[in-house]
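User: Can you help me understand a structure? I only have the sequence.
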Amino acid sequence: MNSFVAKGVSVRLGRVQALDGVGVALEGGRVTMLAGPNGAGKTTLMKVLLGLVRPDAGAFEADGAPTAIDRAWKRRIGYLPEAVAFSDNLTGQQVLRFFARARAVDRARVDGVLEQVGLAHARRRAVRGYSRGMRQRLGLGVAILASPELLILDEPTAGLDQEGLSVLWGVLEEWRSAGRLVFVSTHDLTLTERRVDDICVLRSGRVLVQGTADHLRRETGLPHRVWLDVEGSTSEDRRLHEALLRWGKGTAERVDGQLRIDVPPADLLELMRLQSEFPEAVRALRVEEPTFDRVYETLLEAPGP
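Assistant: Let's start by predicting it. Here is the structure, written out as tokens:
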């Protein structure tokens, strides 16, 4: 499967319109993150894709052809729930062997998956002796056991230490390199942003925007922060500061021997040209993009349906 598209997905739960015409597109070789506040409809959308909730309206396509969320579809996906739970009496190896039988996966793959998720050393330890992070990695192992075409991960970073995060990033990269699809729902935006290719933001059951992080930054128009490391006492430095004040397209302030300027993205090139006219004043330059947390908050605060 090289692509999957959901169109016009609507779900009403009692008096609540949980999803209202939601559309989302997933591409092979790209990791898509689903973000949104509590109550935005993320869990409901996940349940629709897993076949746990039947939508009131909507259509689905895989590789450009109509598809149904049925038993055949479920064999094509792997799922890591937000809260994993296994029998405490089983060992990690027994858990994976159970799911291998259920998914008709060669038993020989079990030990390889345990190695991949960093649990080979604990394969014969009862799950009751696993930490939260180890249980999360075991859940990830279950999700990837059948090498699914679409991997759906709900809050996959929960409880993971640095070692566990490295395992998760490795899985994302493997699925990306193999041209498979990955759909990740998370609140951990700053940690996950650099590891995904596309971001879909939900609010009140509707899609606000979907695109790359850079696309979302452009949508908000938030300023970039530019730091100019200046001499601080030369006449050329003072003339640079005066020129920036006259320019008037960014807010320039002196902070610990540096000039800090907040500039709209469209004016960055003009700022670069301006500062280049004072080569003796500027020793170094650094540009900071707005953090994705700020981008996300701005998107949610924008007026909309």
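Now, to help you interpret it: The chain has a mean pLDDT of 90. Residues 162-177 form the longest helix (16 residues). Let me know which part you'd like to focus on.
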